[in-house]
Amino acid sequence: MKIRNAAVIGAGVMGAAIAAQLANAGIPVLLLDIVLPDKPSADKPDRNFLAKAGIERALKARPAAFMDPDRAKLITVGNLEDDLKKLKDADWILEAIIEKLDAKKDLWEKVERVAKKTAIISSNSSGIPMHLQIEGRSEDFQRRFVGAHFFNPPRYLHLLEVIPTEKTDPQVLADFSRFATETLGKGVVVANDVPGFVANRIGVYGIVRAMKHMEEYGLTPAEVDQLTGPALGRASSATFRTADLSGLDIIAQVAKDLGRATPDDEDFTLTDTFRRIVEEKKFLGDKSGSGFYKKTKGADGKTKILNLNLQTLEYEDAGKVKVAAVEAVKARPLAERVKALYTAEGKEGDFLRAVMNDGFWYAAKMAGNVSNRLQDIDNALKWGFGWEQGPFETMDSLGVQTVIANLEKEGRTLPPLLQAMKDSGRERFYQGEETVTPAGEATKYEAPYFILTDLKKDASKVVKKRPGASVVDLGDGVLLVEWHAKMNALGEDQLRAVQDAHKLVQDMGYAGLVVGNQGENFSAGANLPLVLAQAQAEEWDELEDQIKQFQQVTTSLRFSPHPTVAAPFGMTLGGGCEFSIHADRIVASAETYMGLVEVGVGLIPGGGGTKEMLLRFTDQLHPGQQVGAALLPAVQRAFELIGTAKVSTSALEARKLGFLRDHDAVVMNRGLVLEEAKRTVLALAPDYVQPTPRQDIPVMGDAAIAALKSALYGMREGGYITEYDLVVSEQLGRVLSGGTGNNRTAKVSEGHLLDLEREAFLTLLGKKGTQQRIDHMLKTGKPLRN
């Protein structure tokens, strides 16, 4: 089954955002909603008002729902009265309407009359069982029906719960899961058709239990969020900030529904305080402007966050809340933090053990109930709620037998899975290529993607290792340079690893090389603390050698005798961007935020980035425009891109900005980027011809410098740039002009532009203004406008 176009019914917050994600993936979408005749346009009722409003809301959403606003053109609007028949062309039909069973059943009756017999049909319901929705539908309709529960916002939350019923054709499930993974870029978890499915069932249980234990141990919501946030490897919104975002009324309703639908021992009972917050005070979270937290303006006009006092149910300014147990461990690696917090003393430790033990017990109880694989439960919590580790992975880091002993000490009856683990004496749920079934029996671990950096990594694949980087054999003759420093900042280890890999490719007969990794970001750029320290120590010869080496390594990706592919994702800034744009090909994650941002710290790109963007933009001109004043638009384009430190908000925008070329690829699912990069190397290798550096780059010389200076001084006089912005921009303009003294028909080599880059970089690094900018950035994380 091929899904080439889709239809979404329901243009509310979720429906419109799902339509936007389909458009992001290049899928044409029909977006339908009901008719509201009381919403007139200038001369007649707009029968498509709700669908149009949904798209407008998605276009204005922050964070942005569209990776490129132009993708909204792939969405066609309509309404369920006039355009229902258009569903006949859709390969996939998804409903995202009101959460009422009767409404969904009525809709499916209408859809079945017009949908083609090969269309996959789905519901985005977060709680209504799928099998109830298809009662009374034909056997063929039921065979093609599978739940598809997205998490909000669909672009950014990786999780998609796919829920088959007993009637769903296994091939439909397989085809749809593949489409969701590869085309939509989602992390698919196959959930059983039970109340709450996976993530909400376990997540809401955790929130309800955290509220109970918070009151029991006399903690505040802010203290709980400190304890259950990044310190435990979870999202910064932690427990109660997440609740505010979700809507406290929604959580209360889901908890009540789950309480009615689940056994008594699961206990979704809300505390009296929680009920008062929602029912009496009407504090519903962000949607009502107040929940566990409330934003307000201080006397200075700045936004201030007030905390809800659970005793008085009044808001108060608690200042910056710090928890000693968290402060003591926050600099440690995750596994150490989790162990320390799980064994902490005092009420904070008592609270955390109670909450974590609840979570461990419940996740084990749900194994085989909400899903048939442990990894699906772990992935649902990681992909849906931003956890670094799922509950079973966390138990592994603590030692499963330790957790079991603590649960028994509390007098709990062990779920079958934990009883089986106790009986077998296993200390881990995941061990190498092996995991266990919900019954505790050994089975093969099925990684969703090619995974390098977790405990399942095969150490024998590491060909060469340095403290901050490794060279890894990806199989089939392809090597990977994997950086693994903090923020993947670029220093000696990272550069030497690329050199190591080039040598290994040639000496050992590999096909080619991928530069990529599976950290949080591809690379945030140069190691600024080291650069600043060397500049302040006036180690100019060493710095020049290092910059020259950096240029040699970045450009080696273009001029090696074998193909190279960069696989960027997340933050790909400064030097990370320069590495990427010099590769033969880029295979980028759709969520790639790429930019040459050096001006923010008073520098210009020094690893070939300035040269490369000038070369690309001049090459895009018609041959007749590559001389004299006709060159100026290309120079200006590069100057604006670098001089404003423009960073793409997606890989689609990176292509518009010029960082990605037409032959570079965008992959929706970050987990598949390395796999696609490897395939690209293998496709290039058989006929690969080593390129040679260009000697024919047209430049304008003094004429461009004069034009750029004129514009810069106008901007300075108008107050658009600072005095030091002017200093940095003049150095940038000099490089993009090819240097002084060149005439309007000059052509220069790549080497010449690299020399100019290096000279400008060092000149700026020696200035007090640049050193102040670097120091300010390191201390505050924000640019200094000096």
What's the total number of strands? Answer: 24
Shape: globular
Spans where pLDDT lies below 50 across 5 or more residues: 453-457
Instruction: Give the end-to-end Cα distance, rounded to a whole number of Å.
Output: 59 Å
Mean pLDDT across all amino acids: 94
How many helices in DSSP terms? Answer: 30
- CATH fold category name of the largest domain: N-(1-d-carboxylethyl)-l-norvaline Dehydrogenase, domain 2
Residues in helix, %: 40-55%
Question: So what's the CATH class of the largest domain?
Answer: Mainly Alpha
Structure, explained:
The protein has 786 residues and is of the alpha/beta class. The chain has 4 domains: 6-190, Rossmann fold (3-Layer(aba) Sandwich); 199-444, N-(1-d-carboxylethyl)-l-norvaline Dehydrogenase, domain 2 (Orthogonal Bundle); 457-597 and 647-691, 2-enoyl-CoA Hydratase, Chain A, domain 1; 599-645 and 693-786, no CATH class. Helices cover 44% and strands 13% of the residues. The strands form 7 sheets. The chain has a 7-stranded mixed β-sheet, with helices on both faces. A 5-stranded parallel β-sheet has the order 3-2-1-4-5, covered by helices on one side. Strand 1, helix 1 and strand 2 (29-33) form a beta-alpha-beta unit. Helix 19 (492-508) packs parallel to helix 21 (540-559), helix 20 packs antiparallel against helix 30 and helix 23 runs antiparallel to helix 24. The longest helix has 21 residues, at 346-366. The N and C termini lie far apart (59 Å). GO terms for molecular function: (3S)-3-hydroxyacyl-CoA dehydrogenase (NAD+) activity; NAD+ binding. Keywords: NAD, Oxidoreductase. Pfam families: 3HCDH, 3HCDH_N, ECH_2. Residues 196-294 form the 3-hydroxyacyl-CoA dehydrogenase C-terminal domain. Residues 6-193 form the 3-hydroxyacyl-CoA dehydrogenase NAD binding domain.
